[in-house]
Predict the 3D structure of the following.
Amino acid sequence: MGLAVTDALGITAQGLETLQRKNKRADFGRLERIIREYQVREIVLGNPLRMSGEEGIQSQKVAEFAAELRQRFQLPVHLWDERLTSAEANRLMREADVSLQKRTQAVDRMAAVLILQSFMQARTQHVGNAEADIPFKS
């Protein structure tokens, strides 16, 4: 699971070490430490919509995970369209001549950064233009 955090002003996103999923107890323990260490105030999850924009089985699983995160950590959790972020992450790393082995290890982290940056940009544009119709899901 790719992880990223933002600076205190919500301007930039930085990737963290990818969470290698083990079991719920270990995964939530790691997330709890990250939430505490980085003083996380809200969570953005990539929502794996189908290319048509429709929800599928994976997006339903992510919605269930979001509900569990809300309950466990008492934080707002937003679902954000993640279509093509892995492809974009791969493209950016290819352009930077990152080796295939390193690229494979870093794609989830880069995708998390792209998702968070996209969310923050949309939020900034939405605040700047109150009439904009930004599809925030929470």
In short: The beta strands are 3-6, 13-16, 43-47, 77-81.
